[in-house]
Amino acid sequence: MTEIEQDQIRACVFEVEKQNLSTTRIIDLSVSAPLAHNEVLLRIDTFALTANNISYGITGDALGYWHFFPSSKPQHWGRLPVMGYAEVIASKHDQVLIGERVWGFMPMATHFIVLAGQVNQGGFSDISPCREGLSPVYSKFDRVSANPFYQPQNEDYDILLRGLFTTSWLVDDFMCDNQYFDAEQYLITSASSKTSIALAFNIKQRGERPAIGITSEANIAFVESLNCYDKVISYQRIQDLANNVSSILVDMAGGKTTLATIHHHFVDKLKYSCRIGATQHHDIELNQTAQSTQLPGATPTFFFAPTQLKKRTLDWGAGETMKQMSLALLQYIAFCKSVISIKHTHQLDNLNDVYQSVLAGSAEASIGQIILPNKS
Length: 376
Fold this sequence. Notes:
InterPro entries: DUF2855 (IPR021276). This protein is α/β, with parallel strands linked by helices. It is built from eleven helices and 17 strands. The chain has two domains: 3-147 and 340-372, Medium-chain alcohol dehydrogenases, catalytic domain (Quinone Oxidoreductase, Chain A, domain 1); 163-306, NAD(P)-binding Rossmann-like Domain (Rossmann fold, 3-Layer(aba) Sandwich), CATH 3.40.50. It has helices at residues 3-7, 51-58, 60-63, 155-177, 194-206, 220-226, 256-266, 289-293, 305-316, 318-336, 351-360; strands spanning 11-17, 20-29, 39-49, 77-78, 81-91, 101-107, 111-120, 123-126, 140-143, 185-188, 211-215, 231-234, 247-251, 270-275, 301-302, 341-346, 367-372. The strands form three sheets. The protein has a six-stranded antiparallel β-barrel with strand order 3-5-6-9-8-7. A six-stranded parallel beta sheet has the order 12-11-10-13-14-15, with helices on both faces. Helix 4 (155-177) crosses helix 5 and helix 9 (305-316) packs across helix 10 (318-336).
């Protein structure tokens, strides 16, 4: 692509106000300047939006998610990361070619520029200064042509599910690796969320512990229809559960009220309390460390997927680890095609309505939201 052609691109990005995630804006990006050495310009073809992406905004400061794609006004505005596919449309790196299609972590935008490094047959990483100190897992862009498990017909489900499935697969692997902390069952909040469903699916595939799904009254029928959980209850019925069964809590909801209710109900029978998601974001206080340590039972602990991935990679090797996760993902995609439908939204200008429904928790759990920011 020539510099003149770059001048003709209308690039823009979707931003959210860090302290009030419901306030959004779309601003123009400048991609017309000549690329610097090793810079690559990507056009985003498609990305998925789930409650997991909202969690990135809620934990943006605590876990560093705002640093991946910093805004021009980072004190007020942030760019939420999403999983998607993009095409290389300009490159100043001799090993990254125009026309290549990649998968990875990207902003909700039409285009973005990365500083390519650590290039190999499988892909490359963004080594921009803003990535310093962040997990390298989120900086990698996989070459679609090098992925033996890539199937074109799975693209929508792949970007909708792969990132959260990887987290769930690693949670299940972590618990098994630690002999389930001597617990007899799982308790999974926000049971209708796609991350929770993926975890329940993995747990059922392994077949070593039952899983109880905890969800809103409105989602009980949908969650029960999945047949992934051994039992499904509403948040209002938590205290009806037998509290003499040793349990692992995987908290995808993140609400302080739900967390406290479960801890006070199970007390010392709660052997491990794992915090991941934040679907109940209106009831969250991220700086509640002191309060969390005062809860009975196991101290709530944030699960950081890259830590378990690094351990498993050292145990098995990177190739075998990726193979095991990819084969499991293909099984999960096949399952999800029967229970989750896809809704496409064209143009970044139409994103806000979808975003607000996901943020409010009013988006249908049985629908996956896929955004095509450049397609009219």
